[in-house]
């Protein structure tokens, strides 16, 4: 029964992936005005991508029940995801043979950003999920736009407006409110250590986003995402080789099933679904739709993991979503 459902999931994944590649090529080659149905489709892509992204913590917590370490699970996730990114990179190269050549500086930036954005961020996230619930994990990760704002202000001297200060206060008051109850529902020091690791993951991802501003417009979504994810996958597999000599084949079959589903539904598909949606409707509109992510994770964690989420945590979640939306909407304005 489980194998039949597994095959159905894979078939669904391939259909969605092929549809996404077709739409990307179709929309990029058209020069006419986008039809009224295209933004609706793009909104659906972002909505589906946000929900799929929110399943990652669920897959991780389920896999931890089978006594697998964080680095091995992360290595399996990237091992299963890597062929998809290599295929997409190959497909994109064939479709656009005359592309911008990459300089040595570009390659250095891609390696550093892939390391920060998907290797380090993923590693800290997986380690943190050993000590913290899936709902709280997603809530902490969701503050990355505030970190992008602060990094941009410190590095590029971009001014922070009064409304943005208010959004920052709102966001971190929400985190404090959620933490007040989360620490009681967690395991004391383990909760705070897990929260710190997850915050480090959000910070690493924010650094990746700030650094991507120069390369992403030149290289395009498919090429840039495929390259950085490939770099991260190689780094993670090398990390596992140094620590565990690639001993990845003695886990229960459920670990491999969960890892493959996580690679497809919580890594490959949402990465391109959300990127394609942003390309069509813009980051501002995508931010509104993507705010379903933390709520989706909380609901899924309650259903599949039996995690409890108290009233103060719900209140803190709403404050965080409100603060992040204020920052994202302001950034999306011309």
Rg is: 20 Å
Poorly predicted sequence stretches spanning 5 or more consecutive residues: 1-8, 26-34
Give the count of helical stretches.
14
Rounded average pLDDT: 81
Proportion of beta-strand residues: under 5%
- Secondary-structure element order, N to C: HHHHHHHHHHHHHH
- In percent, how helical is the residue content? over 70%
Number of strands: 0
Bulk shape: globular
Amino- and carboxy-terminal Cα gap? 52 Å
- Biggest β-sheet: count, sense, barrel? none
| Overall tally of structural domains | 1
Helices and strands: which structural class?
mainly alpha
Give the structure's gist in a few sentences.
With 334 residues, the protein is an all-alpha fold. The protein has one domain. The chain is built from 14 helices and no strands.
Question: How would you describe this structure to a colleague?
Answer:
It is a single chain. The protein is mainly alpha-helical and 334 residues long. The chain has one domain (2-332). The chain is built from 14 helices and no strands. It has helices at residues 2-29, 37-54, 56-64, 70-95, 104-128, 134-141, 144-155, 162-185, 189-211, 215-219, 221-244, 253-290, 292-305, 311-332. The chain is globular and about 50 Å long. The model is unreliable at 1-8 and 26-34 (pLDDT under 50).
